[in-house]
Amino acid sequence: MDKAKKILDKYGASLREEVWQLLALGFEVMKKGVDTAHTEKHVLNILDNLERFLKSKEIEVEKIDFEVLMVAIFWHDVWKSSRRPATPWLIIKNQCFEGWGSARILQKENLDEMFDKGRQKKIIWAIRNHQAVKTPFGDSLESRILQDMDRLERWDSGRADEFFPNFKNFFVIKNKRSLDWMERWYRKWYMPRRDNESKYHFEWSKVEYKRRREEWEK
Ligand SMILES: [Fe+2]
To answer: Over the range 15-40, which residues count as b (16 or more CB within 10 Å of their CB) and which as e?
Structure first.
């Protein structure tokens, strides 16, 4: 919460008390995450990215609806966080439905009491559309910010270092050679080929992506 507060304070933005409570609830869910790539650390790293992005002044901060953006950041991975994709099929399924899964969990909270329909829609579509398989709907400024900050976070090599040892504990294939092959495939093939500059919305993100990628490939 401190990190979010620091960012908001810097830009003179504030959240209503009930929105802070909603963020805290999402953060608690992430803390209990079993997928080590999607715990509260993931949220904190996204906030770090956001802080640097805003500092670049590429966009006018006044245009951001911070309540919408923060709720989307804190809740976008609550579904994925609690799941252990034990088979290749489940990994693919996660990639296709994660945004919809998280949005559904968030919709169980009392959003009607906090946000009007338009802002609820913005939050829900930002969360739905952060996943690999996207729709042409709901592409708001907040949604694009979440997508870029989230996408950049996967290039954090420390995240992969933590993920793989844990992944090997719950993945259904236990053969060491197969698991080592998967890790190499992920680091050398999947990551470098799956991402490219055109997937980022903002100039700052594109530059940051190139820097992180060079670092990854060293
Ligand atoms: Fe994420």
So the answer is: beeebbebbeebbebbeebebbbbbb
* Ligand 1 midpoint to CA 42 (Å): 7
Instruction: Please give the distance, rounded to the nearest whole angstrom, from the Cα atom of residue 149 to the centre of ligand 1.
Output: 9
pLDDT by residue (tens digit) across 31-79?
998 888 889 999 999 999 999 999 999 999 999 999 999 999 999 999 9
Give residue 115 CA to ligand 1 midpoint distance, Å. Answer: 23
Predicted model pTM: 0.89
Distance 76 CA to ligand 1 centre (A): 6
CATH number of the structural domain spanning residue 152: 1.10.3210.10
Q: How far is the CA of 45 from the centre of ligand 1 (A)?
A: 10
Beta strands in the chain (DSSP E): none
Q: Which residues surround ligand 1, an ion (CB under 5 A)?
A: 77, 150
Domain hosting 93: range is 2-217
CA of 12 to the centre of ligand 1 (A): 26
How remote is the C-alpha of 52 from its chain's centroid? Answer: 16
* Structural domain total, the chain: 1
Half-sphere exposure of residue 185, counting CA atoms within 13 Å on the CB side?
6
Torsion angle, CA of 16/19/23/25, rounded to 10 degrees?
130
